[in-house]
Amino acid sequence: MAEFDKLAEKVNNWGRWGHEDERGTLNLVTPEVVRKATASVVTGDTYSLSMGLSLNGPQIPGTAVPGRINPVRTMLAVNTPMLDAPDACAYSDDIVVTPTQAATHWDALSHCSHRGVMYNGIPANAIDAFGATRLGIEAAGDIVSRGVLLDVARHQGVDRLPGKFAVTRKILEAVEQAQGVSVEEGDIVLVRTGQAAYFLEGDVPRYRSSVPALEYDSPLFFHERGAAAVAIDNMPMELLPSHVTDLGLPVHVLCLIMMGMIQGQNWVLEDLATACASDGRYTFLLSATPEKFLWSTGGMVHPVAVR
Question: For residue 67, what pLDDT is reported?
Answer without folding.
Answer: 87
